[in-house]
Amino acid sequence: MSFFTFIEILGTIAFAISGIRLASAKQFDWFGAYVVGFTTAIGGGTLRDLMLSLTPFWMLDPSYLVMTAFAMILVMFMGRLLIRLNNTFYLFDAIGLGLFTVVGVEKTLGEGFPLWVAIIMGMITGAAGGILRDIMINEVPLIFRKEIYALACVIGGVAFGICDYIGVSTSANEVITSLVVIAVRYIAVKYELKLPVLK
Amino acid sequence: MSFFTFIEILGTIAFAISGIRLASAKQFDWFGAYVVGFTTAIGGGTLRDLMLSLTPFWMLDPSYLVMTAFAMILVMFMGRLLIRLNNTFYLFDAIGLGLFTVVGVEKTLGEGFPLWVAIIMGMITGAAGGILRDIMINEVPLIFRKEIYALACVIGGVAFGICDYIGVSTSANEVITSLVVIAVRYIAVKYELKLPVLK
Amino acid sequence: MSFFTFIEILGTIAFAISGIRLASAKQFDWFGAYVVGFTTAIGGGTLRDLMLSLTPFWMLDPSYLVMTAFAMILVMFMGRLLIRLNNTFYLFDAIGLGLFTVVGVEKTLGEGFPLWVAIIMGMITGAAGGILRDIMINEVPLIFRKEIYALACVIGGVAFGICDYIGVSTSANEVITSLVVIAVRYIAVKYELKLPVLK
């Protein structure tokens, strides 16, 4: 298992956990919580793949179902631990966000689209799952009101474009872009940075 | 008209009626109620077809528009009767759920996907229309909180896989799978079986 | 720049403004407001293109991002003016609705679908962006409860079909269809015409 695969698993589980916890708080039964967790984890990439005219990635690999089941077991048996690990959890979520952004940007460029489309698809890959989660549990999407979230994906996408332009290798660029997203998210949460609201 | 076509019409009308009634209760005008009814009836299959890279089925056959119109007329002129028939209505809905599951499973296998994808697509075909309905009328999706619903589709999909594996003919399997879904739903409603909520 | 391009820009900006204003009223930050504004402007056409198995139109032309940015600047610096221009704003929205309907109808016919599919796609192009906007800000979709809106697109689509059948040239038909939609909307708002609610 490569380092990136390991990171992707961590990120997927973190996304699924956030969906399972919020759905359970809304009195969804465990099957509903599983569906919301799965949708949170794969929703962004699914929307991206549909727009790129590709088969949604999770239909080609059952391991995302297994990761969501693992997230479910964690919530069931380690609920108290997860609450205590809340800060670590934020970090996993940020790691997932960074990696999902990279995957979205690269997959879109690979289909021949220009960088600006790739940046948007990176953002959709990272942030749309959380929006779908909030729509399914009938809440106003959180990510547009709390600390910088979707914008972190855009900043990461721009960083990818700059590094690519100045000749950084793809594998180095993947690490840099992920780290940019993670750093923006980390700083935003630590200092509670929020974007202003329009009047 | 084959028996299956007859069943599909019944199920589509039952799904459309549920959308029209809930939208009307939310003060949607009759055109809005029609749109919600149509979306409830065709939403699951549309999502399935988009994920399978197929043209949504209702774009190839105007009869779903007609069935929704018929559902509308029923709600308009037979509202009181429909309320009295509430139990029959549940049965129609269960019949629709069973048949939609079969259609989703078979169409997905026909596109060359493995069984586990087909089971998920069976569930999406049966249950996603109701989720879209609840999102459009701004309610928390009901099907993840009341008696076993989406899970009935999954159980039906698994039954299909087992029957197929042991060599049951396709036409017999279609009937068996539908009956499994209907039976699970019937028992769940009769005994008010609910899945537990995670704490 | 052709007259139609000019009209399309006006309509896109009007749609984006409605999304930005409603999202800001819901305490979305400026980035969230931008995303909702963009979704309102391009959401209907995106859904149409996915159903037609086409690449979403905005992925082939970055100008929709620029128009949304322009809408944002207008809301930021001309908020008071926009409120005073509320009636003009309704007109822009109606113009956008008319043109979006024409684009949806023609694109669908161009893909070889029959008229009834084209009429539905015209309605989706015009009205689905507003529905997605309302879902994202967690409100019951407005367009199914206030003055005739989505139905105006359908009436426009039917007008397109009739004109086409009696041999009106395409360019004349585009103008006629747009004007029909705009007129229906104008009359509906002026006389507060609403469709009845089913009991």
Describe the structure.
The structure is a homotrimer of 199-residue chains. Chain A has 199 residues and is mostly helical. Chain A is built from 7 helices and no strands. In chain A, helix 1 crosses helix 4, helix 2 crosses helix 3 and helix 2 runs antiparallel to helix 5 (115-136). Chain A is globular and about 50 Å long. Chains in contact: A-B, A-C, B-C.
Task: List the defining traits of the structure above.
homotrimer, 199 residues, 76% helix, mainly alpha
Task: Chart the SSEs and their pairings.
3 copies of one chain form a homotrimer.
Chain A (H helix, E strand, L loop, with lengths): L2 H23 L4 H22 L11 H22 L1 H25 L4 H22 L13 H16 L4 H21 L9
Helix pairs in contact in A: 1-2, 1-3, 1-4, 1-5, 2-3, 2-5, 4-5, 4-6, 4-7, 5-6, 6-7
Strand content of chain A: under 5%
Average per-residue pLDDT of chain A, rounded, comes to: 91
Query: Most extensive interface: pair and counts?
Result: A-C, 26 and 28 residues
Low-confidence stretches of chain A: none
Question: What is Rg of chain A?
Answer: 16 Å
Q: What is the helix content of chain A?
A: over 70%
- In whole angstroms, the N-to-C terminal distance of chain A is 49 Å
Overall shape of chain A: it is: globular
